[in-house]
Amino acid sequence: MQIYLDSCATTAPRQEVINLMQKTLQQGWGNPSSLHHWGERASLTLEKARWQVASLINAPSPDSIIFTSGGTEADNLAIFGITAQYSNPQHIIISAVEHSAIALPAQMLEDKGWQVTRLPVNRKGRVNPQDLAQAIQDNTVLVSIIYGQSEVGTIQPIKELATIAKKNGILFHTDAVQIAGRLTIDVEDLAVDLLSLSAHKYYGIQGAGALYIRQGVRLQPLNGGGGQEKGLRSGTQALGAIASMGLASQLAQEDLESESLKLRELRDYLFELLSPCHHLVITGDLLHRLPHHASFLIKSDSGQLTGRKMVRELNFAGIAISAGSACNSGKTQPSKILLAMGYNPQEAVKGIRISLAHHTTKEDIEWTAMVIKQIIKRILETE
């Protein structure tokens, strides 16, 4: 039996999405910037995808969508696109539980003399909006807070945080990569200025992402070239991947309510099945949580069963999960996210993440819970 439960890392593309990419590569491969028929056809494909992505997040205009290679590039464009406009270092605010696509650019800025405030989180991984209000300085130019944390599933109070930034005349960005296709996103209601998306997190193709930019917000481009994507992201667009992102966005919007409910029920069923296991402690916020996300800390006095070892053991059984976020799964260092939430270094190497998708079944959940219990019994309860 093969069970894939690592959808926060990537999702399997839907067949409709694969079919569209193949069709685009075979029949619609023109350059969207060309003036002839092939270019016009490609341009129509591009702009349809832009409209579909804008619709998923209720953006007021498709023109507010800039296509990128994924969530990381979208995050970098947001961070550096704002900060590059300043000749002297200023101040930005992020959270202590950001994805590396935000945390590392912030560190790069700090190395160049910028001030970076990293807002603390509570034991559940949530930012206190009052901490943001107190952290704002006269030279604060940007706040970037992740919407849904990929490692522990906690959802931040983005609307409240963005409102605080707006009242102080400060731009607000959020990495919504894990939220898109799982929960409703309304950029008008959230009052965010910038928002990042990645297609492969909601059954699209890897290599396509987008940055929403509110009208009136100016960014400095990261690269020079032909001026595609309104001059903000030069380079011929990856039309097949972008067209597929558009369709994935449309399908995600259509299925959002039913899929979110299904995944939430399966997630809670997994929590229920594993609740008798005293060696597992749920991490993250149970109330404010991604519907497809379950995460645990393995409790053990010894280091025999770390998160990485659990991943390997389950892989032997044909089950895919993650030890923390995919970008850190190959490292042995304690999770920076768990450390920020107050866990000690010995505990912070024992986190696991199980993330579901539309193909996940009740039988998958039952089998996985049984295998996890067997692994724990074999390794921990015989110590």
Automatic annotation (TrEMBL):
<protein>
    <recommendedName>
        <fullName>cysteine desulfurase</fullName>
        <ecNumber>2.8.1.7</ecNumber>
    </recommendedName>
</protein>
<keyword id="KW-0479">Metal-binding</keyword>
<dbReference type="InterPro" id="IPR015421">
    <property type="entry name" value="PyrdxlP-dep_Trfase_major"/>
</dbReference>
<dbReference type="InterPro" id="IPR016454">
    <property type="entry name" value="Cysteine_dSase"/>
</dbReference>
<dbReference type="InterPro" id="IPR015422">
    <property type="entry name" value="PyrdxlP-dep_Trfase_small"/>
</dbReference>
<dbReference type="Pfam" id="PF00266">
    <property type="entry name" value="Aminotran_5"/>
</dbReference>
<comment type="similarity">
    <text>Belongs to the class-V pyridoxal-phosphate-dependent aminotransferase family. NifS/IscS subfamily.</text>
</comment>
<feature type="domain" description="Aminotransferase class V">
    <location>
        <begin position="3"/>
        <end position="366"/>
    </location>
</feature>
<dbReference type="InterPro" id="IPR000192">
    <property type="entry name" value="Aminotrans_V_dom"/>
</dbReference>
<dbReference type="InterPro" id="IPR020578">
    <property type="entry name" value="Aminotrans_V_PyrdxlP_BS"/>
</dbReference>
<dbReference type="InterPro" id="IPR015424">
    <property type="entry name" value="PyrdxlP-dep_Trfase"/>
</dbReference>
<keyword id="KW-0663">Pyridoxal phosphate</keyword>
<keyword id="KW-0408">Iron</keyword>
<keyword id="KW-0808">Transferase</keyword>
<keyword id="KW-0411">Iron-sulfur</keyword>
